[in-house]
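> call design_seq(struct)
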């Protein structure tokens, strides 16, 4: 019985291997005809004709420097916002440096550092921009959490899982979405920049 199972496994893996080979197209390439050799003149004093290949358009290089510079610029602005607001206590309904809540904080950071208007409340901010999957979150995206039966929380991604927010317990700070508290409460993300 053991030999029969082993034999079936070997047959299965061999079949899968052959199938993958054919589906992936390994080793298969489109062949092109070799260019015709240059014509040779019977006159030894005549220079041979030079055959040139038709010019192919050169593909444009992908410019990732602008995207990188943009992310770096956004991160720098968020670091500036953190320095300016760090330690500001959380106050529900607050909108000043003496106390601020999470949605007022994101609203003011986007207004002051990115010249972007956001609605005042978290539920309204959750409708802004475009939906982003968790694995696609970039620096500057809004990240939303469901922190209670009827309560939401919002922060701004700083990249690498870090986000800037006005925490109820510690005021304005940087946390990481990988922390167990935040991971279990993750609701969604929106791109507004």
């Amino acid at each position: 019985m053991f030999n029969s199972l082993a034999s079936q496994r070997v047959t299965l893996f061999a079949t899968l291997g052959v199938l993958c080979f054919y589906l992936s197209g390994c080793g298969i390439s489109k062949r092109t005809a070799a260019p015709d050799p240059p014509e040779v003149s019977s006159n030894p004093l005549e220079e041979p004709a030079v055959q040139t290949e038709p010019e192919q358009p050169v593909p444009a290089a992908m410019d990732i420097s602008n995207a990188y510079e943009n992310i770096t610029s956004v991160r720098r602005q968020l670091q500036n916002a953190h320095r300016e607001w760090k330690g500001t206590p959380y106050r529900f309904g607050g909108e000043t440096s003496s106390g601020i809540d999470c949605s007022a904080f994101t609203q003011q950071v986007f207004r002051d550092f990115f010249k972007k208007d956001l609605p005042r409340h978290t539920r309204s901010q959750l409708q802004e921009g475009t939906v982003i999957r968790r694995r696609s979150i970039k620096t500057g995206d809004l990240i939303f959490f469901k922190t209670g039966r009827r309560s939401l929380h919002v922060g701004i991604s700083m990249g690498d899982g870090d986000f800037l927010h006005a925490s109820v317990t510690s005021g304005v700070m940087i946390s990481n979405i990988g922390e167990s508290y935040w991971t279990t409460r993750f609701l969604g993300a929106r791109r507004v920049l």
